[in-house]
Amino acid sequence: MYGFINTCLKSLVVEKYGEEIWEKLRLQAGVEDSFLTFGVYKDEITMQLVDKACKILGVPADMVLREFGEYFFEFCKRSGYDHMLRTLGGNLYEFIENLDALHSYLSLSYQEMNAPSFRVEKNEDGSMHLHYYSDRRGLYHIVPGIIGAAALDFFNIEISMEIVNQTEEEERTGKKEHVVFLVTQNPLLSYKERNKFSFSPQCLDDSEKQIDTRSNNKDLEKSENAIRGGSVCPVKKSHWKTIRGIITLGRGKLLRGFDPVYPKTLWIDTKTFCNGLPFHMVFDKELRVKQAGVSIQKIVPGLQTTGICLDHYFSIVHPEVPFTISSIQKFINSQFVFQTKREMMPESWKQRPMLELRGQMIWMESLQCMLYLCSPLLRTLHELEERQMHIADIAPHDVTRDLILLNQQRLAEMELSNQLERKKEELRVLSKHLEEEKKKTEALLYAMLPQHVANQLKEGKRVEAGEFKECTILFSDVVTFTNICAQCEPIQIVLMLNSMYLQFDRLTTVHDVYKVETIGDAYMVVGGVPVPVSTHAERIANFALGIIIAAKGVQNPVSGNPIQIRVGIHTGPVLAGVVGEKMPRYCLFGDTVNIASRMESHGVPSKIHLSSSAYQCLKYKNFEMTERGEIEVKGKGKMHTYFLVRNKTACENEIMGRPIKDLDSGRESAQSFQEDRAETMPSSHQSVTQNQPEKDQTTAIAMKYIDTPTDAQSSLKRRNPAKIADLTGRSYDSKSHGSLHGNQHSDDAPRHQNRGRVKPDTEEPQIRNVRSNFCNLL
């Protein structure tokens, strides 16, 4: 079958059931995603698609095929065959009768087409018997769908089709399956359909015609009665009434009462007839040739001998029936295609392609002979040259001349269309691959920079810096990391850090915090940047509790014991932006970064060290904290600090992003960092090494937080609600979060310092689509 059929089937599934069903159907059938319209495919592909569709949709095959038949009719109309189908016949009988002629015409372009054959017979009660012949078994259920849709669309009638006979014709040379349908026409539409068409322009025109016809009939009856009665003048009134009844303003139908006139003798001599119709043959019931046109005699010299048998020189190609007069009479309404036999041709002709003739059969009852009016079946000028024929060999009145020239152009256009379709398919595949690569590239880019920053850099725009009045920063590092590096191979250090950072990165997704960077054993995370949230301190606190637990699952490659980390947290304002063009990084600037780093460096192993500002943020947030007291901090003097012990309400599984089990319903403390338990590792982490990260990291369950609008957002909303960002990627207004446009804070510029960490991330952070407020970096 041609790809046109498979494309129609795909369009049906996608339109009625969706892309997902088609993709599932395609994968199960093992076929490609698209088909070339003029490409030839094996019948098994279509059969496989139909079979899988029945199984996936849970619908019987006959219903699937009938629905496909109805859709195929509409698909052909949308593909440009609407006018061609409408002009096949004035009623359903003529439409079906000329389907074979349509297939014969399409075979000029679709040379590999193996179309079914149709034969229709009228019954006395107005019904019809439709004979369907095909080489493909099991597809006859398509016929009721196609014919029913055509009858309703073109002729506004409903039909019912039932199978009355189904046989295998052994005597036929092809198209063995023979199915006979009883077609019953019902011109009266149902109430629903009648309402559907009642106000259409075409139906209004039809109703006007019916009214005019009834008025014309009444006029004719009045005229005839008047003539018979003699009450009026038959010359004047009756004459004009009759004319008006026949052609009322050009709407009369003269052909309905047409009666042809034949001459008593045929006013044409035999020579003129044979020259005027150069391709014709007359043969009797025994297939003996009685007469032949001059061009056929030229091509097949044996026909010059009167009385030869036609089947010695020709074979029937279409319809595929035996070469007998009874078979020909049975399919007399079909177009017949004859092909010359090679063994009967002259020696000089045997190397040429055999000539095919196409035409109609006319039975002459008075002579008991069959007239075959035909023309050469040639598709291109190349085929004409191969048979050493010329345009002059075809009669001037024969449209085969124009058909050859037009089809030559048509085939060239089809070849060009086929090439364009192939290129289109190649571009589609390349575009699909390009889109996949683009997603990979963007995922890698978004792992290094916030999404809105990365998008601005891709567009070549200048990335502005933004001030965040309050955020929480966390630093962590590995205790005795220098000693571990001195006693281990570099690959062992890499494996240990990778095992630890994979778990840390997973926790950034659980608590929705932003990973800024890593340098060696140092890990920096911020909450409230680049998306301002009110729960930034709680997020960082829970993240810190999580990494303490995760670190106990990573082994020291020297001692084999769990590694220990120090964690420091501080809350305050920062300035965030992108620095440099080579390997740009989203960095944080300000004294808050320095203090958070000091909290980590002055911390205690396996403890979470808090500054006083971080303590104030967590004071009423269901966290247990202990006071450390005043300590001497390098560069800052004495500072009052605290230790974070545990979350009073969240369990360990909730903090770690694991499914919450029934055992956690008691809401036990996630963790308690006592001095006597500092060296203890939970049993659930004993089997985890730097070479084997935790298996439960595959699915991270985000912890729920309830955020309230920040003060800057609330004040801005009171001034201009339209400028509030809705967390979909739009920028905040320049006044929110204390923007530093112009020289507003030029005196404070020296206070913003960079920690100096510029090494890119190794893992992908949580991607966020929200832009914070930016100002120019001074």
UniProtKB/TrEMBL annotation:
GO BP: intracellular signal transduction
Coiled coil among keywords: yes
Parts forming coiled coils: 406-444
Presence of keyword RNA-binding: no
Predominant localisation class: cytoplasm
Annotated region (Disordered), positions in chain: 657-696, 709-778
Domain annotation Guanylate cyclase: ranges: 472-600
Biased composition annotated in UniProt, kind: Polar residues: 681-692, 769-778
EC numbers, comma separated: 4.6.1.2
A family per Pfam: HNOB
Location of this chain's protein in the cell: Cytoplasm
Keyword field: cGMP biosynthesis, Coiled coil, Cytoplasm, GTP-binding, Lyase, Nucleotide-binding
Gene Ontology cellular component list: cytoplasm
Molecular-function GO terms, alphabetical: GTP binding; guanylate cyclase activity; heme binding
Domain of life: Eukaryota
Protein family per UniProt: Belongs to the adenylyl cyclase class-4/guanylyl cyclase family.
Protein name, as recorded: guanylate cyclase
Gene: GUCY1B4
